[in-house]
Amino acid sequence: MSGRVTGTVLVLLASFLCRVNATESGPSNTVGFWKLDVPRGFTQVSFPLLTANKSVNYVLAGQLTGGATASESDQVLRWDHTTNQFQMIWYNTGTSTWQGDFTVFSETQSYWIYVPPTHPESQILMTFGNVVETPSYAMGSMTPGYNAVGSVWATPAPLSQAGLTGFTGGNYLFQSDLVMSYDALNGSFQYAWKNQTGVWQGNLTQLEPLKGYWLYVAPGHTGFNWSNYPQPIMGASGLLPTPEVVTNTPVSGTFPALLPVVPASAPVISGGEQ
Predict the structure, then answer these.
(1) Half-sphere exposure of residue 181: CA atoms within 13 angstroms, side-chain side
(2) DSSP secondary structure string, 130-165?
(3) Cα separation of 174 and 219, whole Å?
(4) Strand 122-130 and strand 200-202: pairing?
(5) What pTM did the predictor assign?
(6) Which of 200, 99, 118 is closest to 159 using CA atoms?
(7) What is the pLDDT of residues 8-46, one digit of tens each?
(8) Which helix (H) or strand (E) holds 56?
(9) Domain parsing of the chain, residue ranges
(10) DSSP letter assigned to residue 58
């Protein structure tokens, strides 16, 4: 199991003011960068700060450890909810490029970084980009099953103010849609769900920068368009948790017993319906 990973979002106020109430939809004037200490094993992350060039080769460049083959390299994985499979990229040291199943990153998605046990115990990953300053952000369609999401904001956002109006609740946890985040320190998940009156329940209360999340649309629910994710008030940056995933290519590693994902298939919540 991976150890705790620390992450920091630093905001450089190029305009000398973070314009929380900005209304323009063009590029931000506020630039920031984030820094992650990535350990061995699997680490779930998101990319809240990206430039206009979101290609994996531009964002990652030669960071992390590459190899001559995918199994020898660090890997970055993305969940494809349309196929219920993970996609993978790896750094080819022969060509000095990232290659594999996808070519660009998105602020709205979450990803997994896999570092093999023989690679450095800790690596620093840094990138920079424009801070999203629009009053709200369209996160896209949340389809039945599992959706791997990140938070686009550089500060924590309370779930009760995240614009999840299409999120369907239930009488019990496994009747409701869910938001999940994994804590590698104690090997357990934090959950958030809504009861039948629409009140948030559980021990997960906010979406944090740099973290990744599962947003699970329960069986029988139709899904929803997360079209209005309001910008939160400026606050402290967050730390990274660690769920684990498995790709359709050979990798090794230890996976937590409580992990709600299984190799080469859609994630499964223990005790719930698939």
Answers:
(1) 27
(2) EPP-SSEE--EEE-SEEEEEE--SSS-EEGGGS--T
(3) 9
(4) unpaired
(5) 0.76
(6) 200
(7) 555 443 332 333 333 333 445 577 788 888 888 877 789
(8) helix 56-60
(9) 7-18+26-130, 136-230
(10) H
